[in-house]
Amino acid sequence: MARPVGSVTRGTTGVNRLRRADRWLSAVHGRLLRAADRPLVVDLGYGASHSTTLELFTRLRAVAGDVEMVGIEIDPARVALARPYEREGLSFVLGGFELPVPRPPTVVRAFNVLRQYGEAEAWGYWDLLRGKLAPGGVLVEGTCSETGHRAVWVCLDSAGPRTLTFSARFNAFDRPSELADRLPKTLIHRNVPGEPIHAFLRDFDRAWAVAAPYGAHGLRQRWLAAVETLADGWPLYRTAPLGGAGRWRLGELSLPWSAVAPTS
Questions:
Q1: For residues 172, 245, 23 and 213, what is the CA-based torsion angle, rounded to 10 degrees?
Q2: Domains, the chain, with CATH or none
Q3: Taking CA atoms, which of 102, 108, 169, 170 is between 20 and 30 Å from 253?
Q4: pTM of the predicted structure, to 2 decimals
Q5: Average pLDDT rounded to a whole number, residues 65-72
Q6: What is the pLDDT of residue 11?
């Protein structure tokens, strides 16, 4: 076997750490999985524990009963620890960004994997992974906090990045701009004046401040009010499956990647 493409990550993981992204993926792309012939999902770089891969498998099986999942890790010891938990439809293999799987995946999830790389490398791995997707498939790449209470992810298809999603527990921040530390590698160093992502987070903080009186009715009500204000100036998705009150009430919001893409 050729050497896997990529480098070993810290491997930090934990039970339910990726539940926010899993919930979003099930709701937004469940139809894609149900429509696919023999849908294959890859969990790339699952870390020192198999738990988040098993959780995603269980959640996706609830919306698409024939989903098959492969967890890929570049560390042989981690693969060996995970293999006793294999079952019908779920397996673990040694590999990296080359994706050693039997057919093109419908969905690739890669969380907390690209943070150790430079921005140019992250763009390159996006391109590599997009080129391996099944027709109509998606790559969900992002990062989250240790507890999973703050997360940001990008959804890409074969043509490139399409959406950016912020998700947070309502008491996990004082200002929305604190989610900047979860931005994908392709954006995290662009959070400077003159870049769209900086303007977005600045306006989100302002909307949060304006919505402060709604906090008397709870942080969820303050979030909803802030998002409504933010949507007056930014193209937030307002309807299902990507937006609207149903998703906003969960502490989520999504907008087109084009609204926050780097200027150069």
A1: 10
A2: 19-184 (3.40.50.150)
A3: 108
A4: 0.96
A5: 98
A6: 77
